[in-house]
């Protein structure tokens, strides 16, 4: 975790973080719309 970490590692980590956030957003959105549909 030093400042001399390879660029590839940082880029891969950033990409993984974006993917995780995107999947989490989809899961939350699908869950919200699913429950909202039930209430309607």
Automatic annotation (TrEMBL):
Pfam families: YjcZ_2. The chain crosses the membrane at residues 12-32. It comes from the Bacteria. One of its GO terms (cellular component) is membrane. It is a single-pass membrane protein. It is found in: Membrane. The keyword Membrane applies. The keyword Transmembrane applies. Keywords: Membrane, Transmembrane, Transmembrane helix. Belongs to the SscA family. This is Sporulation protein YjcZ. It comes from Domibacillus epiphyticus. The lineage of its organism: Bacteria, Bacillati, Bacillota, Bacilli, Bacillales.
